[in-house]
Structure formats: C-alpha cells, structure tokens
Amino acid sequence: MNPEDQESSAVATLDPGPDKVIGPGHDYGSVTDEIGGVVFMPFLKTPRQLFTGFACAFVLVNLLMVAVTWLFVRGVGIWGIVIPVAWGFAIVNFVWWIGIGHAGTLISAILLLLKQDWRTSINRFSEAMTLFAVACAGMFPILHLGRPWLAYWLLPYPNTMWLWPQPRSPLIWDVFAVSTYATVSFIFWFTGLIPDFATMRDKAGNSLAQKIFGTLAMGWRGSAKHWARYQKAYLLLAGLSTPLVVSVHSVVSFDFAVAILPGWHTTIFPPYFVAGAIYSGFAMVLTLAIPVRRWYHLEDLITMRHIECMAKVMLGTGLIVAYGYAMEAFMAWYSGGIYERYAFVNRMWAGGYWWTYWVLILCNIAIPQLLWSRRVRMSVPAVFMIALVVNVGMWLERFVIVVTSLTRDFVPSSWGMYYPTIWDWSTYLGTIGVFLSLMFLFVRGLPAISIFEMREVVHHEAEPVHAHGD
Amino acid sequence: MPTETRASGQLERVYGLMAEFDQPEPLLEAARRARAEGYRNMDAYTPMPVEGLADAIGFRTSWVERLVFLGGVAGGTGGFMLCWWITVIAYPHIVAGRPLNSWPAYVPITFESMVLIACITAVVGMLALNGLPQPYHPVFNVAQFARASRDRFFLCIESTDPKFDLEATRTFLEQLQPREVTEVEP
C-alpha cells in the first residue's frame, strides 16, 4: 500500500479468483477512485452497452406508458382477467417483483449481521435493486384496482364516507407490509449512501456535482462521534430489516394462504414464499451484477468469490423451494381432500396449463442442480444463464400458483380459463423496462459499490490476522 | 502562514489544531495519547469507521438505541391501537363470527408499524444527534480535509478544551508524527 499516491494507482482490474473479495494492490484511494470514477466518467465515455441497454429499457418504459394510458381509459377489461381468474398477471408480477426485492435486504441486512465479507461490494447494488423492484411491484396492485386514482382509499385516514380499511384482511396487511418495506429499503439504502455522498462531494470536479452531492451528504464529515452513532443506527436497521424481509413475503403469501381456495390454502406458503423470494432475488442480482461488472471493469471488486457465494445461496434456497413443491404435492395426496387433490392433478397434467408446471420444475429445480458442480459455479456465462432460467422459473411459479388455482374452483360452473392479452404482456415488459432503466441510471449516477465499506475491506485485508484465503 | 503572527491572546479565533495521518492505527494511537495527556474536547475524522476510535477520544453514547426502542414501542402500540380503534370503535363489523377485538389479526400491522417507526427513528435520530444536516463546519476550512472522505485520518483538538494552548498543543501533536499539523479557522 502506498499512501503517497496522489491519484489512483493503476490497479489491474483482474479477478483475483475465488478466495478474495478484493483484487490485489488496492488502497483507500484506489477503491475510492475506481468506484467514484464510474460516476465522474465523462458522459460520452460511458460504456456503449450502457447506452444500448438504457435505450432498450426506455423503449419498454414507453410501452408501459401506452399500456397504462389505455388501462386508465378503458379499465381492467383490456387485460385477460375474467371471473374466476380475477387476479391474473397483475398479481403474478406483483409477487415476482416483491420476491426479487428480497435479495437486496437479505444481502445488506442478514449478511451484515452474519459478518459475511463477500456482502460488501454487492450490497449497495442489490439495495438499489430492491428499491426499484418494490417500485415495480407496487404499481401492479394499484393498476389492478380498477380505479387506480382511488388507491389512497387503502390507507386508514379519516374520511367523509366514515369508512375504514379492514385490518383483519391480508390485503390490508399487504398495504402495510409493502409500504413499510419500500420505506425501510429506501432509508437503508440512503443511510448507506451518506458517507459516499460526502466522498463524491469532495471528489466532484464541477460545482454543480459538488452542490448536489454536498446537499445529499448533509455535511457529513466522517467524525468519529458520527461514525459511532451511524454504525449503531446501521446495525439496528439491519436487525429490524431482517424480520421485516421475512414478514413481507409471509404477508404476501397470506394473501393466498388465508383464502380457502385449493392450491392456495396451505400452511407451507410463508416459508416457501420467503425462500422463493430470496431465490429469485439472488438470480436477479447475478443477472444484473455480471454484465455491470464486465462493462465497468469491476472484476477486482466483484470477484469470483461473490459470484460463487451467490450461486451457492441460489442453490440452497432453490432446494428449499423444491422441498416446498414436494410438500405441496405430498399434502395434496396425504390430506385426502378431494378438492386439494384435484387442484394438483389439474396443475400437473389434467389442466390447460400443465406445461407451465413442468417448465417451472425444469427451470427452478432441474437446471439449477448444475450449480453443485464447482466448474459450473466458476463459469460466469453458466451462472448468468442459470440465473436467467431461475428468473423465468420463479415467474412461472407465481403464474402456476395464481392462475391454475383460480381456474378450477370448487364448483364446475365457476371454472374458466385465463389468457393474457397483449396489454398484460405490455404492462409486464414495461415494468421490466422501468426496473432496468432505473438500474442503468443508478450505476451511472451514484456509487454502485459502497466505497466506505470497501475501505474497511482494504483495511481488513491489510491486517495479516484477518487475511482471507492465505 | 497566520500562525507566526498570531498572539496567544487571539486563541478564540482558532477552532482547533488538526493533525493528519496516513493510516488508522497511528490516529488511534494519537487519540489515546491525547486523551492520556488530558485533552477532552477533540474529534477524529476518518473515511470509514475505525474500531475503537470513539472509545479512544472518550466518546460514549447509547441514545440511538434508546430512541429506536422508544420508536419501536410507539410504532407497535400505535399500529395495534389503530387496528383496535378501527375494528372496535370506528367501523365495528363482525367478520366470521369473531369478536370485534380480534387481536391475532392485528399482529402483522402491529409488527410492520413497529419496524417502520423504529427504522425511521434510527435514521432521523442518528442524523439529529449528529447535528446533521449541517451546512457549515470549520474543519472544512483545512485544505487537506477533502481527503478525510478518501484516504486520510485526522485528529482535531478543539480550542474549547481547557488544556488547549496553541503552542503547547501544537508541540504535543507534532510528537505524534503526523504528516502535518494545521490550524483550523473557525
């Protein structure tokens, strides 16, 4: 380490391999420059893939605008929803997006409490992912309301109608859980950013950037007294977010489990939903982190160790999800309930959506087993492909749960099929566009890796007692 | 440099004396020695949290956790009371033959409200106790201080310290082998 270096020493951006969380030769200044440099890179020097990616995502944002405008004009009838399948894509996508968000909180909170060193260079990034995923998720129930402009009726507020929301209903629990989750994710993310805003302020080349970052940093000066309170607050946020993240997807699963519908009415839903959420979230973190690491040459900060650890978490949570599927099928048989059993026969081979179930098994259970092999985990393209497959699989899981259960109710007279329309697909693709656009803007405009925490990693790596992998 | 021309009678015009270090360990050592020397009003500035530094400058606080506890209690109580008030007083409505005060159904909202208020208290409380947002602070007058958010570590003994004396404190700080000792303009 050479503290005399005024500017960033040219550190080779090489992946240090699966044992290291940071490349060799880094000091406090060089991590600051490498991460901050991405933000202060001249506009035209932005990696070309980022422009292309943003352009594609922005096309989808416009598609969303069209789809939502048409929805506001014509109402939810433009979607494929019918009675009995009144939930359709809106709720499938809502659950999918909320699930994706969970990995961010898991990485930033639970792995912080467990003192996992590989969390540091991916936490900021995945917290941002959480935030944007929750934003996308939040849109769906509101768009699904029919009269979205009255969404505020969901909140308890004194009104001239003398009406109040029903706090015994899981749907209202959802309002509280998701809005709390969105708020807490935001303040967690923002709190983590404050010291880095100060770094950006002190590093800024022009006065506009200095003013913007200076305002956001709120006068942070790295005082030891401030750090002491900051660390306490951060730790408490992590401690509070850990049960929160478990509660949010549990509450989402109550939307289903509390109903008496066969295929929904099951006690395994909360843990199985939470595991599925983490599973899909890690898949999404990998889907985003792998390209960004390559485009911005951050291989020495997001190393193979990070990728391998995430692949392992994906494998582990995938197995919990597999257990959930197995238990659902087992209970359908073992419970002896004819409606429950029929729901599963219908889901697996008798119904019109049987193939979605088997594609889901293929995507979520069969293909991810490749991750048992270290060679697969060490191959970035293979991990990326598996992550994409899991994203698809987890979406199908929600489709299977929401749609196949609703199509076959207790009474044959209330059976019906659901076919998504072009507007269902447009809204779904549109939110993917919103999510990716926000991610692209985030990695361009804010430090995508926590700089001050990377300095702590540098400090740790410099102490021989704490050295890893030696 | 204004240091040479300043008489000791103008001490109040200085915010403090700041020593600059390359690494956290020498700063930690310096803070411990400054405290052993009898200095009390000081602060250290670092680009990342340094374990034991708050202790070394003699700073202890437990207000963040107290506030968060209060916030959590208030949030939880508030959430529960909201549910209770809605279902029992404001909009009594019997669902599935359950009593009006069907408290098990209030648990999720109680929990979420507790977490929400506790988290907001943690951040707002931390910022308030730290006196942030703060648009101006004298330490920023030191040119080198821009690196406190990058790769330098600073110890500042403030002029409000009863033991502070421009010359003696400067001599003391220089013994600690910093890169530089600078006066901080108020």
How many DSSP E strands of chain A?
A: 0
Mean pLDDT of chain B: 88
Unreliable segments of 5+ consecutive residues of chain B? 1-11
CATH hierarchy: architecture of chain A: Up-down Bundle
- Rg of Cα set of chain A: 23 Å
* Secondary-structure content class of chain B: alpha+beta
The end-to-end distance of chain B, rounded to whole angstroms, is 16 Å
The number of domains of chain A is 1
**What is the CATH first-level class name of chain A?**
Mainly Alpha
Q: What's the number of structural domains of chain B?
A: 2
- The CATH class of the largest domain in chain B is Alpha Beta
Task: Provide an overview of this structure.
Chain A is mostly helical. Chain A has a single domain, classed as Formate dehydrogenase/DMSO reductase fold. Helix content of chain A is 68%, strand content 0%. Chain A has helices spanning 28-40, 48-74, 88-113, 120-143, 170-203, 207-217, 224-257, 269-295, 304-334, 338-350, 354-366, 374-377, 380-407, 422-445, 451-462. In chain A, helix 1 packs antiparallel against helix 15. Chain A starts with 27 loop residues before the first helix and ends in an 8-residue tail after the last helix. Chain B is of the alpha+beta class. Chain B folds into 2 domains: 2-59 and 138-184, Alpha-Beta Plaits (2-Layer Sandwich); 63-129, no CATH class. Chain B has a 4-stranded antiparallel β-sheet, covered by helices on one side. In chain B, helix 4 packs antiparallel against helix 5. Chain B is rod-shaped and about 80 Å long. The two termini of chain B are 16 Å apart.
